[in-house]
């Protein structure tokens, strides 16, 4: 039995049975779906993704209502997230139409300084069925209908999704919407299947039909599953977005001239969604003395006026409480402000603003605390700011606020940031990830298990593909995109070293 729980009260609102999770049967169905997706070609998959987006939109009211009941995120936030999710499906249809993601290349047979070269044609092909693990904090955009699923389906890979226990009913409705879109586009197989039980997770990663895994979640669970994927008789790629402390640094001139504005924006950023964002800033490095006083005061005022928010689940609320307790017990830490406690019922987290001495940065102060918590560290000199930053490991984001007078420090900060973070934010706030061609949502370990790839943006499709080279294969047997005269129109490809834009 699977329980659907309202985090605002802690009460179970629905209990439903799920079928026995026979991974061999699911794997067989996923293989059949993969073959159908691959056979549908780029145009067929693009039509399917657009039909899925339409099916999600048609079910908007029901999807948002159930997600709000299971997450407490609020209908305004969830409507925006659902809009992003539908857009993301359509976006990957555009990626398919474009075709450049295939990295198609043709080298015609001919003489070279190394001797005679055969006819060589290279393209990316789908891996096969993949597993996707839904995230707690985004019941749509990073869960069953989210970016991992959308990019995998675009690549031609069927999906077996592990439902997050925080929103099982939302996941089921989302899967039904995706399948309705697939049926409307003429596909008959179950291109997306679900498993619910936590005990199934390890077996799913190890199942021989699974060719890759996408995961968004904690460092502990992600590392466990990544190790299982690597230990298989035939290891598979594991793309885990895990956890890290995202840094936020403010130059002295920026703090002096617009400190209150930056403080207000930073407070909104770290408390957004009750701090349950993987891109939440966790450490703010600000100038000491008068230059940083307005910024710090704005943070204090905003946090003190904030109430406790509904957290996604009891487990997440308990983990936040434990993390906050560890931070409060650390040496060299003082409380600048706390938010209100809120009602006693349900799963809630209260905002917490701390200040730490630079020499106290160790242990829990260097680890992610998933919730509405921020640590302020002050610096006296540019060297002090860099020294503080270097205490923290790689992360998804690094944010810099700087004005013209801060250019010398900013240059050094940028040099450090681009080496340690997947996305560098300039004079902005990191808790927004756009679905776009240039977006990168990733970073060196422990932010992710694979710094080469992204889980958001067009390049997310690359995770589910592998290259194949065809040597001297007859034209009629080649993939259409590699033929001299493609039947379905040209795509961008490199021909004998020269880029042909199609």
Automatic annotation (TrEMBL):
PANTHER family with a match to the protein in the record: ALDEHYDE DEHYDROGENASE-RELATED, SUCCINATE-SEMIALDEHYDE DEHYDROGENASE, MITOCHONDRIAL
Segments for region (Disordered): 482-502
Pfam families: Aldedh
InterPro entries with a match to the protein in the record: Ald_DH/histidinol_DH, Ald_DH_C, Ald_DH_N, Aldehyde_DH_dom, Aldehyde_DH_Superfamily
Protein name, as recorded: Aldehyde dehydrogenase (NADP(+))
Protein's UniProt keywords contain Protease: no
Chain segments annotated as transmembrane: none
UniProt keyword terms in alphabetical order: Oxidoreductase
Domain Aldehyde dehydrogenase: 2-443
Domain of life: Bacteria
């Amino acid at each position: 039995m699977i329980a659907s729980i309202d985090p605002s009260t802690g009460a179970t609102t629905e209990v439903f049975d799920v079928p026995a999770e026979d991974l061999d049967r699911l794997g067989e169905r996923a293989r059949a779906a993969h073959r159908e997706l691959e056979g549908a070609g780029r145009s067929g998959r693009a039509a399917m993704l657009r039909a899925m987006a339409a099916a999600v939109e048609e079910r908007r009211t029901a999807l948002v209502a159930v997600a709000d009941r299971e997450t407490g995120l609020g209908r305004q936030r969830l409507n925006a997230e659902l809009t992003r999710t539908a857009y993301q499906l359509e976006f990957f249809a555009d990626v398919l139409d474009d075709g450049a993601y295939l990295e198609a290349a043709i080298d015609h047979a001919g003489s070279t300084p190394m001797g005679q070269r055969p006819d060589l044609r290279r393209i990316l092909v789908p891996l096969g069925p993949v597993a996707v693990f839904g995230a707690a904090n985004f019941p749509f955009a990073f869960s069953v209908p989210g970016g991992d699923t959308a990019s995998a389906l675009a690549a031609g890979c069927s999906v077996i999704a592990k439902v997050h226990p925080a929103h099982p009913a939302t996941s089921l409705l989302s899967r039904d919407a995706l399948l309705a879109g697939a049926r409307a586009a003429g596909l008959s197989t179950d291109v997306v299947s679900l498993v619910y039980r936590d005990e199934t997770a390890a077996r799913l990663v190890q199942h021989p039909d699974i060719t890759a895994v996408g995961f968004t979640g904690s460092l502990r669970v992600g590392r466990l599953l990544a190790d299982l994927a690597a230990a298989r008789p035939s290891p598979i790629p594991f793309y885990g977005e895990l956890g890290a402390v995202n840094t936020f640094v403010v130059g002295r001139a920026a703090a002096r001239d617009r400190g209150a504005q930056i403080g207000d924006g930073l407070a909104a950023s770290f408390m957004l969604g009750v701090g349950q964002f993987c891109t939440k800033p966790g450490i703010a490095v600000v100038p000491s003395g008068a230059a940083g006083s307005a910024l710090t005061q704005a943070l204090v005022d905003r946090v003190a006026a904030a109430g406790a928010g509904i957290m996604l689940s009891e487990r997440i609320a308990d983990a936040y409480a434990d993390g906050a307790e560890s931070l409060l017990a650390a040496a060299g830490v003082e409380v600048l402000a706390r938010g209100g406690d809120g009602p006693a019922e349900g799963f809630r987290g209260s905002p917490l603003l701390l200040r730490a001495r630079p020499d106290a940065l160790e242990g829990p102060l260097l680890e992610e605390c998933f919730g509405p918590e921020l640590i302020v560290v002050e610096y006296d000199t540019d060297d002090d700011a860099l020294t503080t930053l270097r205490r923290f490991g790689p992360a998804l984001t690094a944010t810099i606020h700087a004005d013209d007078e801060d250019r010398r420090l900013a240059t050094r900060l940028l040099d450090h940031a681009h080496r340690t973070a997947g996305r560098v934010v300039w004079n902005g706030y990191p808790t927004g990830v756009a679905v776009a061609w240039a977006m990168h949502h990733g970073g060196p370990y422990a932010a992710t298990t694979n710094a080469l790839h992204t889980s958001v943006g067009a390049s997310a499709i690359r995770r589910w593909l592998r290259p194949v080279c065809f040597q001297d294969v007859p034209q009629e047997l080649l993939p259409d995109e590699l033929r001299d005269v493609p039947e379905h129109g040209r795509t961008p490809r490199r021909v004998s070293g020269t880029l042909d834009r199609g």
